[in-house]
């Protein structure tokens, strides 16, 4: 029976044996099925999640699905890291850690660790994982058991937090007691210091009283002078001994003499202190001014025990103020008389003073200027270096471009100087040189135009001479190449016969088998290149020759565009892979000069080719007709570099070019604009730096019966 179950079944001698054999097999299968059901019930009834890992998750129990909040189909075929965040709390990659742990388990090393998982509902949980190696049917697997310890972790964290809080309370209580002891010790020390300070204070007050620069009087309750210092005696020009025992108004002239209007009387009645300014004539006849301050000495019950009066001599100060006011008036008149705008700023550029004539340069009045945070907000970020100014103390002739309140661009020249003033440290003077700079620019442009015009005259003469000199050798090539080609074909018969008899051979530096096919192509290429040279020379001669002045030709704008594209075919192919041409239908004709309009279109297409720096960028050409205004139009649009706002207004000026360094003359658009004016049309250009350019030509369409 065992052999029958294990090996190949043996044929039974009788049907009864076969029936018994099958029945035994069924019993064995039923027993195995019950055992399988028992193990399945145990497997599914485990309180921990169980996973069987091959290269992926190949089996799991119901608790694993419950922990991860998903179905079994969502687990089988995945890897454990698919149910984890990208990185674990220690910063390592979840997939890499899982690979290492599984590999170690397959080597027989049991792995036990904590792991962060993400349930299918997006909630992150903490799990405890154990990995063991098991063998099934001779193959090693990893059996993973895991359980959700999120609640345990939370309770553990809460416990740790509670312990930490208790430790913190104990530490706080201990620190409070320590601080109380320290403050108590400090209070004892402070009182001892206070006692010593009081002893010194009396000595210091005595010293201050005797050495003070201000005059000091001490009066008793009856207004008698009981003490006076040397400064007061010098102020009133009397000795100290002659002052003591007298009334204050006997020494310091006062018309009130302790009546109800006296300042001293006001202190006695209610005020604690008061001050006023007093002028008097001294014994020597000098007019003096001083600031008098008085304060009452009161008992704890508020009774006036005496009065202390302080006399500050303001005579020198008054004279200095008068001179300062005179100087300020002089400088104000000076600032109003100059054209420069003067600023005083701090080290960080904050404006503390601005001259009154700033409006003529910046358009803002003084109050509006002071509304700017710093000078750099007004004239641009860091137009000078604080570090450089600190070294050289003065920076002169700085050119600054600013925009005034009205939006006009202005060029200023600035001088910056370090100043040692209380309110500011930097003195800045601006002078408007806008008109001067514009005049210099106009003079430079006019000079460049004269130079360029001379170059163009020389170029015209040179082109005519070069064209003539090139034509002579080129004509010789055109005449001789066909003769050489015929000679080659005649000689090839003999050379072919020689190769048939002796095999391939060298002709010059080429094998004849290669040369017999290549040489005719060389002759054809030479002839094509020579004809191209002739065509280029003819175009140069036509360009240098005075153009036709006939303006009565019937012009089909689509025909002119086709001719221009044909001439520039090679240049357009090199410039872009996205040449898009749209010819309008039903285009009315107009009258003009075919050659001149072709020249305009060629100029615009050449500019578009030069502006495109990537063959993936497009050049689009379209023609059309607007019936309302009766205008035929042609538009060229490129995705090139574009034109800056500064250059755009000048692109049609003669000799104005942004391509001077690469051979630009500045005449293409200027001539094109003039040709459009001759035809009663218009050339308009729309461009933005970095976004491309769109050029539009418009011509007034005419009916067939219109006069020229």
From TrEMBL:
The keyword ATP-binding applies. The keyword Signal does not apply. This is histidine kinase. GO terms for molecular function: ATP binding; phosphorelay sensor kinase activity. Residues 177-204 form a coiled coil. It is an enzyme of class 2 (transferase). Keywords: ATP-binding, Coiled coil, Kinase, Nucleotide-binding, Phosphoprotein, Transferase, Two-component regulatory system. InterPro entries: HATPase_C_sf, HATPase_dom, His_kinase_dom, HisK_dim/P_dom, HisK_dim/P_sf, PAC, PAS, PAS-assoc_C. It comes from Desulfomicrobium norvegicum (strain DSM 1741 / NCIMB 8310) (Desulfovibrio baculatus (strain Norway 4)). It holds the Pfam family PAS. PROSITE patterns: HIS_KIN (PS50109), PAC (PS50113), PAS (PS50112). Its EC number is 2.7.13.3. Residues 465-703 form the Histidine kinase domain. CDD domains: HisKA, PAS. One of its GO terms (biological process) is regulation of DNA-templated transcription. SMART domains: HATPase_c, PAC, PAS. It catalyses: ATP + protein L-histidine = ADP + protein N-phospho-L-histidine. Residues 201-246, 327-379 form the PAS domain. Residues 274-326 form the PAC domain.
């Amino acid at each position: 029976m065992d052999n029958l179950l294990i090996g190949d079944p043996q044929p039974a001698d009788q049907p009864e044996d076969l029936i018994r054999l099958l029945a035994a097999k069924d019993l064995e299968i039923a027993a195995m099925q019950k055992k399988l059901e028992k193990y399945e019930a145990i497997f599914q009834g485990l309180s921990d999640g169980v996973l069987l890992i091959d290269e992926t998750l190949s089996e799991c129990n119901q608790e694993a699905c419950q922990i991860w909040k998903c179905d079994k189909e969502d687990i089988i075929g995945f890897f454990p890291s698919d149910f984890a965040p990208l990185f674990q709390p220690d910063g390592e990659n979840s997939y890499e850690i899982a690979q290492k742990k599984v590999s170690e388990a397959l080597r027989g090393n049991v792995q036990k660790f904590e792991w962060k998982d993400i349930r299918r509902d997006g909630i992150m949980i903490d799990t405890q994982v154990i990995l063991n190696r098991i063998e099934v049917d001779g193959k090693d697997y990893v059996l993973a058991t895991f359980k959700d310890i999120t609640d345990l972790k939370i309770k553990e964290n809460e416990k740790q937090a509670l312990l930490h809080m208790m430790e913190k309370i104990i530490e706080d209580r201990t620190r409070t007691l320590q601080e109380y002891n320290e403050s108590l010790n400090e209070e004892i020390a402070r009182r001892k210091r206070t006692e010593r300070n009081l002893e010194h204070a009396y000595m210091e007050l005595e010293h201050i009283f005797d050495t003070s620069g201000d005059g000091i009087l001490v009066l008793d309750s009856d207004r008698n002078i009981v003490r006076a210092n040397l400064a007061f005696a010098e102020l009133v020009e009397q000795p100290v001994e002659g002052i003591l025992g007298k009334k204050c108004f006997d020494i310091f002239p006062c018309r009130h003499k302790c009546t109800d209007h006296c300042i001293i009387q006001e202190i006695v009645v209610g005020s604690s202190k008061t001050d006023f300014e007093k002028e008097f004539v001294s014994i020597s006849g000098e007019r003096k001014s001083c600031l008098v301050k008085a304060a009452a000495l009161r008992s704890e019950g508020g009774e006036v025990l005496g009065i202390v009066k302080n006399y500050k001599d303001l005579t020198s100060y008054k004279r200095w103020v008068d001179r300062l006011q005179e100087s300020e008036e002089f400088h104000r008149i000076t600032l109003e008389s100059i054209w420069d705008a003067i600023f005083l700023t701090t080290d960080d550029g904050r404006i503390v003073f601005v001259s009154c004539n700033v409006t003529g340069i910046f358009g803002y009045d003084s109050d509006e200027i002071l509304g700017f945070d710093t000078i750099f907000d007004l004239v641009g970020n860091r137009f000078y270096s604080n570090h450089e100014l600190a070294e050289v103390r003065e920076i002169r002739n700085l050119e600054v471009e600013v925009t005034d309140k009205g939006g006009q661009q202005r060029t200023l020249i600035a001088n910056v100087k370090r100043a040692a003033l209380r309110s500011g440290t930097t003195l800045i003077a601006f002078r408007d040189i806008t008109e001067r700079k514009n005049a210099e620019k106009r003079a430079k442009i006019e000079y460049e135009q004269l130079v360029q015009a001379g170059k163009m005259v020389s170029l015209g003469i040179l082109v005519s001479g070069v064209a003539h000199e090139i034509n002579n050798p080129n004509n010789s090539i055109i005449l001789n190449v066909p003769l050489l080609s015929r000679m080659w074909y005649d000689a090839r018969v003999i050379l072919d016969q020689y190769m048939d008899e002796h095999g391939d051979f060298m002709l010059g530096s080429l094998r004849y088998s290669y040369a017999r096919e290549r040489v005719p192509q060389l002759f054809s290429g030479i002839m094509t290149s020579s004809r191209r040279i002739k065509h280029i020379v003819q175009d140069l001669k036509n360009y240098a020759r005075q153009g036709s002045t006939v303006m009565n030709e019937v012009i089909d704008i689509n025909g002119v565009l086709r001719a221009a594209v044909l001439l520039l075919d090679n240049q357009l192919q090199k410039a872009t892979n996205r040449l898009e041409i749209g010819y309008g239908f039903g285009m009315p004709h107009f009258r003009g000069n075919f050659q001149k309009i072709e020249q305009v279109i060629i100029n615009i297409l050449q500019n578009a080719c030069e502006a495109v720096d990537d063959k993936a960028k497009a050049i689009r050409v379209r023609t059309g007709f607007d019936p309302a205004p009766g205008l035929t139009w042609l538009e060229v649009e490129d995705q090139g570099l574009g034109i800056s706002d500064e250059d755009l207004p000048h692109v049609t000026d003669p000799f104005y070019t942004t391509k001077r360094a690469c051979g630009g003359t500045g005449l293409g658009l200027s001539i094109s604009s003039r040709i459009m004016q001759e035809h009663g049309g218009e050339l308009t250009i729309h461009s933005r730096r970095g976004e491309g350019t769109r050029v539009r030509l418009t011509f007034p369409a005419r009916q067939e019966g219109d006069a020229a």
